[in-house]
Amino acid sequence: QQIENDDSLLYCGTTTGDILCVIMKTAILVSIGPPKKIFSMGVKSLCHITTGGQLQYLVGAGDGTLSIVKDRHSKFQQTKNCVKLNGSITSISLRGPGHQFFVGTSCSNIYRFNFAEFSCILLNTGHSSSINDIIFPHETADLFLTCGKEEIRVWHASSEKEMLRITVSNMTCNALDISRDGSIIISAWNDGRIRAHYPETGKLMYQIENAHNRGVTSIAFSADSNRIISGGGEGQVRVWRIEIGNTYTKDIFKTSLIESMKEHKGCVTQIKLFPNGIQCVSVSTDGTCIIWNLENYQRDAVIFANTLFQCACIYPDNCQIITSGTDRNVAYWEVTDGTQIRELEAAKSGSVNAMDISKDGKYFITGGGDHLIKVWLYEEGIVTHIGVGHGGSIKRVKISPDQTYMISVGEEGAILRWLSPFLTESSKST
């Protein structure tokens, strides 16, 4: 809706794609348009602007069309100035008299337009739906990757700008990882495929068909990047071998299944590799947490709990792991025999969906259904800091490799960057 400055007329955009002009006092319809081509998927946003003494309107449509139309005397006839943006137009805001204006879309894009040239630049962008995972490249704090519905994005941390977007239509990426040398991005998708992409261009490198029959829900790279460990919705943990078939071009890959480990009865929510590279841990919604030996592909230990496990973290010395889930507790476990050391109440409401531990093992962070980021001292088991900012359930949290900041992502599509409360001395000096 838009009201004239003297409050005499009301302009309305309709779901059928028309623009109406109504007298405020009498509610009489004065004009309706455009006469020929209406706006597809309805008029979502409307804003009047005066140029050279002539009244015109900026109209945003549901199909992403942004157009300039004439006034009511011309029955809102469309002009030649028309562009199509990514996503439905949700808002239009003028800067000053209108020489510049900003446009927001349902795909979480913000554009800045120059009215005279009717040209635009993408000012800001973000995820428009839930973010399922976040990772940092090995020993790199300048970049991080996120994934969600239909896409994987690579971000530059300091400038908070998107550097690369990988899109797979009508699919959802549940998890991702990157090789130690940063040359391959692997991702887990709900169509049962594992996809690998080049990080420079985003082009598909290879994909593993039918990796899991109920979607791939978790994934991890081995330290040598020759094996992929994946978890599926059916509960299986599978190990895949990746080989380069052509030693000259290095662009032909062979993938083969090494082992399928069938212990879990529910969805595998996360897989983490131990720093020693010999073991990995998988957690599942069936209430089991299993430590696997990646040399003989047998389980070394199994943990049972009355919860739906959501995440796990490995202590840097490989001796302990911590887990969390729908019981709202963080539990410490021995790796050797799976005995519980202690249990902490991590939230008053909602599940604890995400955890990460610092490289030195002194502290860890949690996030979940209570929308709060909490920083814990590992040995003492106490909360030192609480972060408030998310508008939805937190899906994943990560501490940067240099431990100077933390990243949290949520189901509302937000990416929040937090200053670490425990900066190292080297970080402070730089």
From TrEMBL:
The keyword Transcription regulation does not apply. WD repeats lie at residues 209-250, 261-302, 345-376. The keyword Lyase does not apply. PROSITE patterns: WD_REPEATS_1, WD_REPEATS_2, WD_REPEATS_REGION. It is found in: Cell projection, Cilium, Flagellum; Cytoplasm. It holds the Pfam family WD40. GO terms for cellular component: axoneme; motile cilium. Transmembrane segments: none annotated. Keywords: Cell projection, Cilium, Cytoplasm, Flagellum, Repeat, WD repeat. Microtubule inner protein (MIP) part of the dynein-decorated doublet microtubules (DMTs) in cilia axoneme. Important for proper ciliary and flagellar beating. May act in cooperation with CFAP45 and axonemal dynein subunit DNAH11. May play a role in cell growth and/or survival. Belongs to the CFAP52 family. Microtubule inner protein component of sperm flagellar doublet microtubules. Interacts with BRCA2. Interacts with the CCT chaperonin complex. Interacts with HSP70. Interacts with AK8. Interacts with CFAP45. Interacts with DNAI1. Interacts with IQDC. This is Cilia- and flagella-associated protein 52. It comes from Octopus bimaculoides.
